Amino acid sequence: MISLETIPSKADRSFDSRAGRKKHRPRLGFLGVGWIGRNRMEAIAQSGLAEISAIADASVEMTNQAAAVAPRAVLLGSLEELLNQDLDGIVIATPSALHAEQSIAALEAGVAVFCQKPVARTARETRQVVESARYANKLLGVDLSYRFVNGVPQLRDLIKNGALGKIYSVDTVFHNAYGPDKPWFYDARLSGGGCVIDLGIHLVDLVLWTLGFPKVEAVSSRLFAQGERAADVSPAESSSLISSPQICQRDAGSTLVEDFAVAQMDLEDGTTVQLACSWRAHAGCDAVIRASFYGTKGGIEFRNVNGSFYDFAVERFSGTKRETIAAPPDVWGGRAAVDWAERLAAGSGYDPSIEGLIEVAETLDGIYGR
Predict the structure, then answer these.
(1) On the chain, which terminus has fewer CB atoms closer than 10 Å, C or N?
(2) Going from the N-terminus, what domains does the chain have, and what CATH number goes with each?
(3) 363 to each of 105, 133, 366, how far by Cα in Å?
């Protein structure tokens, strides 16, 4: 544990907007500056909302590349060094196994956190991170960036306002023609799972967030690794699998994460959500990404365009007719980070809406049968 008493006070930089104190640019540190971390750093730097004060990465090469974005930043080697820099917030983009521990350490030190997804490998770890943020009254953000793609807020509003009637079915797909390029993704102890926690998490979050986080009453799934199926997971079996996650096991000495998964989630309001996701799928393009919502008065779909990982469209359906709500181009990748930085600059502390992450994590646990 890091003692709050050892952290310098930020009282001279903090403010309460309701009291009329001056707004400030929070001092940020960046932990992990590979492609994703550097991209988020660039987005925040371009926004002008925060001061990039410190950078830490185990790779000297990555650190030097990031320093070009923020030449005045102090270059460091660890989270511990970052926490000695009198920061207001830390952006974490390290391997998944480190997210929960590093987020909790920063929050307990009185520093707000923006973390890459997943913020933790399991629901239990996720609860610990969220509880740390609540106890410290610090802003916690997670990079679930599809919420910020053009057209998605409108999609959510149409559903929330009842324009599509009762949503009774949601179909989601995320097939990736490639697999991760780092070995830790394939080690369940480090990653928490395979394509579901890497890709499927985006769509599970998008659906639950769009629908207002209704309770997920039941989850069933089938997981595959290299064409071989793991044991079926059903709600009745889940309790017996708590200590034995349904990561695909080939033999007693080898555990593989899943590279293909299908799942069904039954929500308390009667809505059925289906998910299919994969790595290295023979999909005829780089990626197939889709979330289709079907209601009694109409439908709406979020989907990628021409197999792109970055170009998305949102279309509304009425019978055989389509209406385009949003279409490319759209530079959305850094919006979640910028949104967090903006809220931090506005003096935001703990935001209870982050508790929706626990339900997302519990749903993933259900898919994995743990």
Answers:
(1) N
(2) 4-145+335-352 (3.40.50.720), 150-331 (3.30.360.10)
(3) 26, 21, 5
